[in-house]
Design brief:
It is built from seven helices and 19 strands. By secondary structure, it is an alpha/beta fold. It has one domain. The N terminus and C terminus are likely disordered.
């Protein structure tokens, strides 16, 4: 996308994060410790071959082919719709956002832009259709820029799978900018399944213009710590933004998920659905903020946050909030609820001859599938469901199970 390499412009776009969001959630945050100097592996033939072999093993197991493989040691694309370049070098430059503001989103964006090893450009031309799968492999600290542009009346279905080969502490840090132009339809599904040696920083800025549809599916499952800041705006008349996020945590995993949705034009829709299942000593902070701007007659906005605590030591903070500048002829609701597994539901299943352990798995899988069914791409749905089901059955995060619909409840009438 033209101008994306200009980091000053990229950072300025993050200035739209509402002040209310920073202040309201100031106390509910997991701090991110950034390295003074990111660690990068060398782009040698041996390191590239190692990533090639890792990617091939995943493709063989899943019986698919990725359109691009992105890592520090290897970046390759098999699609004309994906362009990979090296970003401009601007380390420590004030235009990166350094010294401008201490806001966490801007600080993290500045870090990624200053240290990015690659810029990934994905473009769907007007009236065109794209269906892409990308594998991101964390082999060292990985700040990376991703720009996605779907032109007028274009259609894109993009699946991103995040995995790790890192053997010591490292950071996976993608920064996305997404534009759904007039009349376009976009669905992006991001499945995080990094290993225990990885921390994730994920920043996303996206907008939908007139009569366009932007769907975002986030599956947060891997890494020891995850910090996500998602800013998604329904910026066109009749535009629709649907954000769907599911968190599955166990052990000592920590998740800090910040999602901001906005209605900026009449008849625009913005929807955020968040679900979390936590086991062990895991922690999740779900922060959803909806902003309905002035002169948005007919706008609809909704935030729903739901959580299940599968152990006594797990903890969820669900914090929905809204700001409405135009109070007449708009629809806006928000709600949150968190609880242990329903004892009455378990008793009912027990009374039908289902052992308690199996009943717990059925209850949790049914809860998770409510969010999974928002994923329209069959492969992405099957892989995400298989991984979450594997977690329910006790698998460690970062592992890759065989694809299997076993134990997955799929509502027949489910549709996006």
């Amino acid at each position: 996308m033209e101008g994306y390499g200009n980091r000053k412009i990229a950072i300025e776009r993050y200035f739209s994060v509402p002040k209310e969001m920073d202040e309201l959630y100031k106390k509910h945050s997991i701090p991110v410790r950034l390295p003074d100097a990111p660690y990068f592996v060398e782009e040698t033939q041996d390191n590239a071959r190692r990533i090639e072999e890792f990617a091939s093993s995943i493709e063989e197991k899943l019986k698919i082919r990725f359109d691009a493989v992105i890592s520090c040691a290897l970046c390759k694309s098999n699609s004309d719709s994906i362009t990979i370049t090296k970003p401009e070098v601007a380390h420590g430059n004030e235009s990166d956002g350094g010294g401008l503001d201490n806001s966490e989103g801007r600080r993290l964006a500045s870090y990624i832009n200053a240290n990015a090893r690659r810029s990934i450009f994905i473009n769907t031309p007007g009236g065109g259709t794209g269906k892409l799968k990308i594998l991101f492999v964390n082999d060292c600290d990985m700040p990376i820029q991703v720009s996605i542009n779907v032109e007028e009346k274009g259609m894109l279905n993009l699946f991103e799978y995040y995995a790790s080969v890192a053997k010591s502490g490292s950071i996976m840090a993608p920064l996305h900018e997404v534009h759904a132009m007039k009349g376009s339809e976009v669905e992006i599904s991001m499945l995080h399944n990094e290993n225990e040696h990885t921390k994730v920083i994920s920043l996303i800025k996206g907008d939908a213009l007139d009569n366009s549809k932007l769907g975002m599916n986030f599956i947060y499952n891997g890494a020891t710590e995850t910090k996500a800041i998602n800013i998604l705006s329904s910026n066109g008349d009749g535009s629709r933004v649907h954000v769907n996020e599911i968190v599955y945590g166990s052990g000592d995993q920590k998740f800090d998920i910040n999602t901001y949705i906005a209605n900026s034009k009449p008849r625009s829709h913005a929807l955020l659905e968040s679900g979390a299942v936590l086991d062990g000593n895991s922690l999740c902070i779900l922060k959803g903020f909806a902003d309905i701007n002035k002169w948005t007659k007919g706008a609809k906005s909704r935030i729903t946050q739901r959580g299940i605590l599968a152990s006594e030591n797990a903890h969820i903070d669900a914090l929905p909030d809204m700001k409405i500048d135009y109070s007449d002829e708009v629809s806006a609701t928000h709600s949150a609820a968190t609880s242990p597994i329903d004892k009455e539901a378990l008793f009912y299943l027990n009374s039908r001859g289902i052992p308690e352990d199996e009943a717990r798995k059925l209850f949790i899988s049914a809860f998770a599938m409510k969010y999974m069914m928002n994923i329209s791409e069959p492969f992405a749905l099957e892989l995400a469901s298989s991984i979450v089901l594997g977690r329910i059955e006790g698998r460690e995060f970062g592992s890759l199970p065989e694809l299997s619909p076993k134990g997955i409840w799929i509502p027949v009438s489910a549709s996006r």
